[in-house]
Hints:
Blueprint: H1 6-14, H2 22-31, H3 33-37, H4 53-65, H5 76-95, H6 111-121, E1 128-132, H7 137-148, E2 152-156, H8 167-175, E3 183-185
Parallel strand pairs: 1-2, 1-3
Helix pairs in contact: 6-7
Amino acid sequence: MANPDPEFVAFLKAYPTYPTTQIIDDLRANEYARLDIGGHIYLDYTGGGLYAESQLRRHNKLLAEHVFGNPHSSNPTALAATQLVEHAREYVLKFFNADPDEYLAVFTSNASGALKLVGESYPFPRGRYLLTFDNHNSVNGIREFAHVRGAEVTYIPIELPDMRVDDSQLSRELAQPSKRGHNLFA
């Protein structure tokens, strides 16, 4: 057997749990091999999650074995699609322990679309919109809806280096009543 690489031995000594990460290597090899085949390093996991090979196989099987139509119609293929959508809604509510008599799961194309829907539909009744200084543009976009509806907009700073809001400051801000009524925090 060849002598082990001294740098790798030093690395293992410094990070003794490293061998337990083999499960991640196996997952990448089995579910995301296309990354290595294409020479990719994918770091935008918060913007768009990668689909696994097993997801592709299951979805392909679902599409190959069924015919789905427009869920807004009443023919058999539309009813099959509606059933899938309603099952997904039920699953999401159950996952979050949300009472279906009180909550509704709404599917949007992405987070930006969801935030736009919130901004367009939330009344901001004589209230305050509290947000951090550093946000995704879509969260900042809600600010414009709040302004138009007369809400006061309050920024709360984030602390470096971990970019988190100080819990005590957040508690003070949330306890402080808005000059105009309700609070919405994003």
